[in-house]
């Protein structure tokens, strides 16, 4: 495997995370994560107030994709994930609506969900037809997106036309066998680290099994078609497999693509041919589902 592009990516991740220790502040970790995810790239967007939540439009088009960024509910922003949103906008031909939800530990659950739900309702209030609307996210952003749809359904709001998940983290109990079988392969999402993020997000008394926290435990019936792209070297691979199993059991449709040798949210690394191919396939899926 020596000399493969993924090896250079792994080295960058190790260089970034390897600098974090007991004395590293949260702001320093957020800055390092943003640099890692963005690769130093910047993407232009048009700022908008989405019902009181800072948001921005990436790209142009009539159809809309609401994008929930990842970062363990503690990191990430429109700036860090802007390049990825811009890439998805270009691939899909849709406008991507990114937003800065409140982060833990300053703002614990359900602050992020409240913000995401506000953005979803705001988009519908702008007159965007549900059949021209999709929701997407990567890692924790996928869990936030799915929880948002559970909350939207509870509120009587219409479902979007499509869902796209990149390396989804949907289970805050971290029950999957892949946490063990992929532990030596995944540089980002070890079980102990994940459970620490859960505690930070939910607080001491939060319930990690609650559907709005772990939407994999919710009622998954009546959802629109779902596309999932996940790497075979991810500890959260089991979340994707369980999602596919439960959605199909509920009568829904899931297209699950597992990418060999790929790591968590590999699509943020455009130097990988697999990342570019994944973005193109996600764009084609969204373009097809959001066509008039």
From TrEMBL:
- Gene3D superfamilies, alphabetically? alpha/beta hydrolase (3.40.50.1820)
* GO molecular function annotations of the record: triacylglycerol lipase activity
Q: Which domain of life is it from?
A: Bacteria
Q: Which InterPro entries match?
A: AB_hydrolase_3, AB_hydrolase_fold, GDXG_lipolytic_enzyme
User: What keywords is this UniProt entry annotated with?
Assistant: Hydrolase
Q: Which SUPFAM superfamilies match?
A: alpha/beta-Hydrolases
- Pfam families from the UniProt entry: Abhydrolase_3 (PF07859)
Q: Which residues form the Alpha/beta hydrolase fold-3 domain?
A: 65-267
In which family does this protein belong, per the annotation?
Answer: Belongs to the 'GDXG' lipolytic enzyme family.
Protein name, per record: Esterase
């Amino acid at each position: 495997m020596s000399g493969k592009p993924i090896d250079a990516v792994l080295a960058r991740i190790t260089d970034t995370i390897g600098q974090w220790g007991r004395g590293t502040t949260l702001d320093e970790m957020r800055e390092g994560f943003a640099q890692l995810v963005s690769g130093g790239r910047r993407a232009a967007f048009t700022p908008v107030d989405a019902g009181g939540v800072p948001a921005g439009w990436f790209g142009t088009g009539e159809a809309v994709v609401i994008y929930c960024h990842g970062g363990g509910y503690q990191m990430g922003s429109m700036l860090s994930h802007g390049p990825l949103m811009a890439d998805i906008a270009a691939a899909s031909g849709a406008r991507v609506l990114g937003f800065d939800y409140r982060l833990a530990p300053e703002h614990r659950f359900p602050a992020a969900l409240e913000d995401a739900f506000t953005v979803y309702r705001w988009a519908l209030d702008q007159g965007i037809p549900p059949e021209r609307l999709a929701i997407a996210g990567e890692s924790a952003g996928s869990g936030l997106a799915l929880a948002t749809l559970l909350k939207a359904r509870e509120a009587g709001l219409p479902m979007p036309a499509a869902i796209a998940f990149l390396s989804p983290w949907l289970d805050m109990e971290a029950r999957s066998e892949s946490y063990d079988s992929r532990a030596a392969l995944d540089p980002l999402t070890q079980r102990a680290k994940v459970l620490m993020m859960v505690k930070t997000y939910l607080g001491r008394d939060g319930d990690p099994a609650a559907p709005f926290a772990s939407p994999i435990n919710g009622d998954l019936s009546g959802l629109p078609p779902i596309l999932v792209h996940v790497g075979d070297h991810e500890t959260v691979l089991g979340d994707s497999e369980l999602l596919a199993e439960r959605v199909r059991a509920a009568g829904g449709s899931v297209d699950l693509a597992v990418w060999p040798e790929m790591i968590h949210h590999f699509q943020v690394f455009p130097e990988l041919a697999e990342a570019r191919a994944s973005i193109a396939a996600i764009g084609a899926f969204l373009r097809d589902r959001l066509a008039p």
